[in-house]
Design goal:
Strand order of the largest sheet: 9-8-7-10-11
Helix content: 25-40%
Number of helices: 15
Number of strands: 11
Shape: globular
CATH class of the domain at 225-373: Alpha Beta
Strand content: 5-15%
Distance between the termini: 53 Å
Radius of gyration: 22 Å
CATH topology of the domain at 225-373: Rossmann fold
CATH architecture of the domain at 225-373: 3-Layer(aba) Sandwich
Order of helices and strands: HEEHHEHEHEHEHHEHEEHEHHEHHH
Length: 408
Amino acid sequence: MASCRHRSRMMLNGSMPIKRKTSKNKAKTKTHAAETTGNGAGNSHSSSNRPLLTLEISPNIAPRIAIPEFHASVPLGYVHPGSSISVTHFTLEDVDLILTEAAELEATPASRRAQRYAKRRVALLFYESSTRTRTSFELAAKSLGADTALVSSLSSSIEKGESLKDTGITLRSLGAECIILRHPNSGAPYVLAHFTGLPVLNAGDGSHEHPSQALLDLRTILAHLPASARAASKRNHLIHERTLRGVTVTIVGDILHSRVARSNALLLPRLGARVIFCGPQTLLPEYAAGIGPGVEIERNFDRALQQSNVVMMLRIQKERLAGLEIDLEDYIEQYQLHKQRMAALAPAAIVLHPGPVIRGLEITSEITDGPNSVIAEQVYHGSIIRMALLARALDAHPKRNEQSSKHR
């Protein structure tokens, strides 16, 4: 009996999907197809005339997924309710519940917290290098008592060409109840969520999103609001559409490639914040302001800084520049945050950075280690937020064990 073979492919550039292979262009796309298989984004089998899996990504719109006929084990476009793939999936009530859960976990004694998800299984699937995010998620899971397994693209069958789909199904078959994914391709978490049916926590997908980073940034900002503003913002819930009214957040640097900038710009204005994107044309195209309401562009860093309560510095992502040329000396002169600029224009602002920090390029050591910096606090809040996201994922699991509710 003839077998049906398929190859899944992902759209990586704006909202234009990669065209389906046909017999006419099959030879032309052979090299590209091999690359797609190599990074684990698609199915590792050869192609046929069946429909391909296609993802269409645009800044504000979740990918539309066309499922091949051979796969019907889960509904079209299924995403487990415990997943955290995009901040656009969170209502303000969801955000409030996540932050409340984080506060409760923070206040829970470590010994009691470690019993909550004892022996539950969490897999970390990382196709890109990571220090803060990977370690933060792993320690968060262990703090809750869960067993963790790390799968890296450099030390697994991924290196041999195994697809994301097959790797995910393998992890599910081995008993993983939740998968934390970092992937170089935008939209990869949607593929993994569909083919495994498990909660997927997006630890960064290409230039698309980084939801947990936006949530930890929000928690860091809230911790530094004046007490009077915090009290006024609470009302019945900590999070609502006026929580960050009057707060201006300036995000500076490589906006074009930044999933952190995107997730923050999609979340913070919903709470009333004003977000300013700042950077050169090469790294900040004009269309970036169209990501949503409450976002604007200011090319002059000094003017942006004067208006800022929060300054978020971003590194230049050399691995994603793809031929773009940057004059680093000019960039440093125009956009580096240093002591003199900070003291003159925003002496009371707090400084955030998602890391890794490139000292001497986007920011100086005097600022990184100075009194305005809350970079180390971000790392701490990241561990707490990721515990809350893991709790949300594991509590939503259909096979939740009784021990998790017993220790709530």
